[in-house]
Specification:
Length: 451
C-alpha cells in the first residue's frame, strides 16, 4: 500500500485538505491484543521531518484520551481564539531583520550577491554510484488494488517511480558506532553522515574499479537545515520550516583502509561542517544586538544565520526557476551581471539528514495497555502504545535522500526515499547491505550485488 501511495495521483487536494489519515485493517495478536495501523499522508507545505514526529506523538496521546477528554479537547480546539493562538508563524515572519533603513537593506543584498559570486566553490563530488546506466523512460504502473482511495489515472500519475528502503544497524554495530563517535567527540548525527558516505564510497569503488585512486572525487553530501534555532525559536516544531545548506565534501577513502580509521576521519570532517550551521539566534527584536553597523558586519560571516538565510532564499529562487520549462521560466538572475555563484554548480552524491534520538517523541512503553486497572491505573475501554514507524517522501528526479535517527533501543536506523526511475532498486538494496555491515567489521562490503 505504501508503494502505491508514492506512485499514484496526488492524495491530498490542497483545496480540500493538506493531510489524510488511512486506518488499515486490524491485525489480531496471539495475546488478544490488536495491531492498529495507520497510513498518514501530509503535504510538504505543512510538515517536515521534525514536525511530523511531534504530530505523531500528539496523535498517540489523543488515542489514549477518554471519550469525555477527547470531546473537551475538540470543543475547545474549535474556538477561534484557540485556533489563532496555535497557528504557527510563517517562516518569513521570524526572519532576522536585515536593517531598518532602506539604503542599508539594499547594500546588504548587493554585498550578499557579490559574496555568493566570490565564494570559494565546494569541491566537485563523485556521482551517485547507484544510478542506472539509462534512466527508465516511463514510470512503473500499478494495478488499481486500492482504487477506492487512490487515483490510478495515468494522466495524474507522477513522472517518475518513487520508492523507499530502510536499514538498521544491529545493537552491537550501533553500540560500536556510538563508541567511536564518543571517542572522537562528535555527534551521532555526524556518525550517520559518515556511515552513509562510507557506504557510497565503497559502492563507487566496487562499481567503477577502473577509476585510478588519484582521480577519485570526494563524497558530496547535501542536507536540509532546521532554521528554527537561527530565530531562537525553541518551541516544539509544529509546522514546516526548512532551509537548505550548500552541502560539503568528504575525502574519498579506499575500502582497504581499516573501517574505524575511515569512520573517524570522515565523521570528524562531517561534525566540523555540521557545527558551522548550529549557531543560535536570539529571540525578539531584529534577532541581533548592538548597533546596526555592527550587526551588518557580523552578517558577512560565512555561517551567520542572516547570511545563511539570505543565501538560501536566493538559491531557492534560482533552483525553482531552473526546474521550469523554458516557456515558463522567469529568467530570474539574482546575481545580475555577475557570473552565477560557484555553489550553483555543486552536485551532491546524495542527500543526508539526521533528526537524532526518536525516543523524545515515540517510544514503546510510553502508554500502558492495561484496561481493567490491574496495574494501578484507571479503567478504560481503549489504550494504544507505539510499535513502529516508517517514513518516506516522494523523491524528485535523481534524488536519493538518506534520513537517519536513533530509536529508543539505541539502534541506528536509516530510511531512504529515492527516484527508482534513476536509481537501481538492486543497487539501493546493496547500499542497505553495506551500510548495515560496515560496523560489523565491513565483511559485507566485499559481497557482489545482485542486480
Amino acid at each position: 500500500m505504501h508503494r502505491h501511495a508514492f506512485n499514484v495521483g496526488r492524495i491530498v487536494d490542497p483545496e480540500k485538505c493538506l493531510s489524510k489519515i488511512h486506518v488499515l485493517p486490524l491485525v489480531e495478536g496471539p495475546d488478544g491484543r490488536f495491531e492498529l495501523r495507520f497510513m498518514i499522508v501530509m503535504a510538504h507545505q505543512i510538515s517536515d521531518g521534525l514536525s511530523s514526529y511531534n504530530w505523531f506523538s500528539d496523535f498517540l496521546r489523543m488515542l489514549n484520551l477518554s471519550e469525555k477528554e477527547l470531546e473537551t479537547e475538540i470543543n475547545t480546539g474549535r474556538q477561534e481564539d484557540v485556533i489563532r493562538s496555535k497557528l504557527p508563524p510563517a517562516q518569513e515572519d521570524v526572519y532576522h531583520r536585515v536593517a531598518t533603513i532602506k539604503a542599508r537593506q539594499r547594500w546588504f543584498w548587493a554585498i550578499t550577491h557579490v559574496l555568493r559570486h566570490l565564494r570559494k566553490p565546494t569541491l566537485q563530488s563523485f556521482p551517485n554510484p547507484l544510478k542506472r546506466e539509462h534512466r527508465l523512460q516511463y514510470p512503473t504502473t500499478f494495478p488499481p488494488t486500492f482504487s477506492k482511495i487512490f487515483n490510478y489515472d495515468p494522466a495524474s500519475a507522477p513522472p517518475l517511480t518513487a520508492n523507499i528502503i530502510t536499514a538498521a544497524l544491529s545493537p552491537a554495530a550501533s553500540a560500536r558506532m556510538m563508541s567511536l563517535c564518543r571517542s572522537i567527540h562528535v555527534s551521532i548525527g555526524a556518525g550517520c553522515f559518515a556511515l552513509a558516505g562510507l557506504a557510497m564510497m565503497a559502492l563507487y569503488e566496487e562499481r567503477f574499479p577502473h577509476v585510478p585512486a588519484a582521480q577519485r572525487l570526494p563524497f558530496g553530501a547535501g542536507f536540509p537545515l532546521n532554521p528554527r534555532a537561527f530565530f531562537g525559536w525553541n518551541t516544539p516544531a509544529d509546522s514546516c520550516m526548512l532551509a537548505f545548506s550548500d552541502g560539503f565534501a568528504m575525502p574519498f577513502l579506499p575500502s582497504e583502509l581499516p573501517v574505524e580509521a575511515r569512520f573517524r576521519l570522515v565523521a570528524a570532517r562531517a561534525n566540523r561542517e555540521l557545527k558551522m550551521y548550529q549557531k543560535r539566534g536570539k529571540r525578539g527584536g531584529d534577532g541581533a544586538s548592538g548597533r546596526e553597523g555592527k550587526r551588518e558586519r557580523g552578517a558577512w560571516e560565512p555561517h551567520d544565520p542572516r547570511r545563511l538565510l539570505a543565501n538560501a532564499y536566493l538559491n531557492a529562487i534560482e533552483r525553482s526557476d531552473s526546474k521550469l520549462p523554458e516557456g515558463l521560466a522567469w529568467g530570474v538572475t539574482p546575481h545580475g551581471d555577475l557570473a552565477p555563484p560557484s555553489s550553483s554548480s555543486f552536485r551532491a552524491t546524495c542527500g543526508v539528514s539526521s533528526i537524532g534520538r526518536t525516543a523524545q517523541w515515540l517510544a514503546a512503553g510510553t502508554y500502558s495497555l492495561d484496561l481493567d486497572g490491574s496495574e494501578g491505573g484507571r479503567e478504560k475501554d481503549f489504550a494504544a502504545d507505539f510499535l513502529d514507524l516508517r517514513q518516506g517522501v516522494r523523491a524528485r528526479e535523481e534524488e536519493f535522500l538518506v534520513g537517519s535517527n536513533t530509536d529508543a533501543e539505541g539502534r541506528v536506523r536509516f530510511g531512504v526515499s529515492y527516484d527508482e526511475s534513476a536509481i537501481s532498486g538492486g543497487w539501493a538494496g546493496r547500499w542497505r547491505d553495506v551500510v548495515e555491515g560496515l560496523m560489523e567489521g565491513g565483511g559485507r562490503v566485499s559481497e557482489r550485488a545482485r542486480i
